[in-house]
């Protein structure tokens, strides 16, 4: 029986061409392919072969511009060294910054909760009505754009 250990890379995606108030319009599949293309360019066939098994874009929030990539332990280094060199995802000019590398998805989501709570606090002053604040909080704290069933109540 083969047991794989994974690493989850939490990534901040920023784009100078899209204002901070607007969503990026970025899909997980496009993000996934852009990372694999850059790994191919930097590390060749060996890098792609090492990473491909178990590699997945698990989460991508268009509003807060946060994504989570899953890679096997060991080959995750190919992923993490390739991220700073990605300048385009689809037609979008971007810069990527690795925020956190965790051993479990649960810890990555805990980190994102803290990170997004600080983002929410910084955006709070620009909103006028309680309805706008509620909508922003729902968008920022939305963890449903992932293929993992996660009970947030158990995380606290």
Write the layout of secondary structure elements.
Elements: E1 6-14, H1 28-52, E2 56-61, E3 66-72, H2 76-82, E4 88-89, E5 92-93, E6 95-102, H3 105-123, H4 130-140
Antiparallel strand pairs: 1-3, 1-6, 2-3, 4-5
Commentary on this structure:
The chain has 156 residues and is α+β, with helices and mostly antiparallel strands. The chain has one domain (6-155): Alpha-Beta Plaits (2-Layer Sandwich). The protein is built from 4 helices and 6 strands; from the N terminus they run E-H-E-E-H-E-E-E-H-H. The strands form 2 sheets. The chain has a 4-stranded antiparallel sheet with strand order 2-3-1-6. Strand 2 (56-61) and strand 3 form a beta hairpin. Helix 1 (28-52) packs across helix 2. The model is unreliable at 146-156 (pLDDT under 50).
């Amino acid at each position: 029986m083969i047991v794989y250990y994974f690493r989850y890379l939490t990534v901040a995606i920023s784009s100078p061409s899209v204002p901070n108030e607007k969503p990026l319009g970025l899909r997980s599949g496009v993000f996934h392919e852009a990372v694999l293309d850059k790994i191919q360019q930097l590390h060749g066939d060996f890098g792609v072969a090492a990473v491909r098994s178990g590699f997945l874009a698990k989460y991508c929030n268009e509003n807060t511009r946060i994504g989570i990539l899953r890679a096997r332990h060991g080959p995750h280094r190919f992923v993490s060294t390739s991220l700073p060199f990605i300048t385009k995802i689809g037609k979008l000019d971007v810069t990527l910054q690795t925020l956190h590398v965790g051993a479990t998805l649960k810890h990555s989501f805990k980190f994102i909760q803290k990170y997004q709570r600080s983002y929410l606090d910084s955006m709070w002053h620009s909103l006028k009505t309680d309805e706008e604040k509620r909508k922003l909080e729902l968008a920022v704290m939305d963890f449903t754009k992932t293929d993992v069933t996660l009970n947030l109540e158990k995380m606290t």
